[in-house]
Amino acid sequence: MPSFTAACIQLTSKADVSENLKVATGLIREAANVGADFIATPEVTNMLDPDKAAVRAKAQVQEEDVTLKSFRSLASETAKWILAGSLVIKKPGDERLANRSFLIRPDGSIAAQYDKIHMFDVELSNGESHKESRAYAPGEAAHVVETTWGPVGLSICYDVRFAHLYQQLALAGAGLLTVPAAFTYTTGRAHWHILLRARAIENGAFVIAPAQCGQHSEKRKTYGHSLIIDPWGEILAEAGEEPGFITARIDTEEIGRRRQQIPNLRNIRDFTLQIPAGVSAAAE
Fold first, then answer.
1. What is the CATH T-level fold of the domain 3-261, as seen in this structure?
2. Is 8 a catalytic residue?
3. pLDDT higher than 80, residue 191
């Protein structure tokens, strides 16, 4: 099956898990009804709450999480692939939570799960402060999973700034890259489109990036603009800054055509890095 229709669900998730689930479920059903085969939701679909203690109290272990259970049932009911972009999941024996993505097959089984590797720890000039590593344990492994339309590489939000992750996913066979996100409004406006188009171009891959949008709380606003991008970097579909969904037709044969045209993945070479004395590393 060389082609399919992908959908990105755009949400304004807040503190109420039940209300977030109601909105997400309704939009997933709408996308399924218009012919979407692969439906992806954004990062922290089940809750986006600035009160870390409240998040910890509401989080459930994977086996009991109400959003995951509902999405698995919905996938089976609609016979669609559903990517729960990420859910806040309690980790037994760990004070920190998991920011975990789930790819669900049309029969409701979990094809793969991925814990966000890169933690967003930053203080912005507008007063926003994010210390993700205080609340969430970083993942240790990247994942490529087989689907009806070929291998999919999983990632979450801040991962998009680490190009080597996507190159490794592409080298492992992924021609479809998912980037569910909750990008801040400030950084989203500056970098969201550029980073996602770059990941598509440099890997000859489709990028499916569902996003959170709008005002989640007094201290948190996200950018929206969910995107579906082709391997040439062209935007096939884009949302605005309100909840809803977008769809685009994905022709997977384009992956091979573009990688033949720009064979950079085959042209990678090892090299040595020479650093003059006195030069400081960027991470210092």
1. Nitrilase/N-carbamoyl-D-aminoacid amidohydrolase (3.60.110)
2. no
3. yes
Mean residue pLDDT across the chain:
96
Q: Measure the CA–CA gap between 215 and 230, rounded to whole angstroms.
A: 29
43 belongs to the catalytic site? yes
The answer to whether the beta carbons of residues 226 and 235 sit under 8 Å apart is no
Cα–Cα distance between 120 and 25 in angstroms, integer? 28
Among 43, 90, 213, 221, which one carries the catalytic annotation?
Answer: 43
Q: Give per-residue pLDDT as tens, 216-232.
A: 998 899 999 999 999 99
Helix (H, G, I), strand (E, B) or coil at 23: helix
CA distance 215 to 220: 6
Mention every residue, 6+ apart, whose C-beta is less than 8 A from residue 252: 2, 3, 4, 149, 150, 175, 176, 206
**Which of 90, 157, 213, 221 is an active site residue?**
157
Give me the catalytic one of 14, 80, 116, 221: 116
Per the DSSP assignment, residues forming a β-bridge with 40 are: 8, 83
Instruction: Classify 7 as helix, strand or coil.
Output: strand
Whether 116 sits among the annotated catalytic residues: the reply is yes
For the chain, domain boundaries: 3-261
Closest by CA position to 137, among listed 102, 84, 94: 94
17-33 and 66-78 helices cross at what angle (nearest 10)?
10
| pLDDT, tens digit (0-9, with 9 covering 90-100), for 48-82 | 998 989 999 999 999 999 999 999 999 999 999 99
Mean pLDDT of 155-165: 98
Q: What is the pLDDT of residue 7?
A: 99
